[in-house]
């Protein structure tokens, strides 16, 4: 069950990153703060990598 949540989180982060390339604008809101689009993408990429690390750790636990 936990692995499914990790996969959903990674897909959500990837969709957000890809969507940010196709929408117009130099800034995006993130928790109520307007920030540069590249900082926004970097934050989502960081979230993706944290979730991926947790997923890999969880999958090694079952081997």
TrEMBL record:
It comes from the Bacteria. Keywords: Membrane, Transmembrane, Transmembrane helix. The chain crosses the membrane at residues 36-56. This is Uncharacterized protein. It comes from Maribacter arcticus. The lineage of its organism: Bacteria, Pseudomonadati, Bacteroidota, Flavobacteriia, Flavobacteriales.
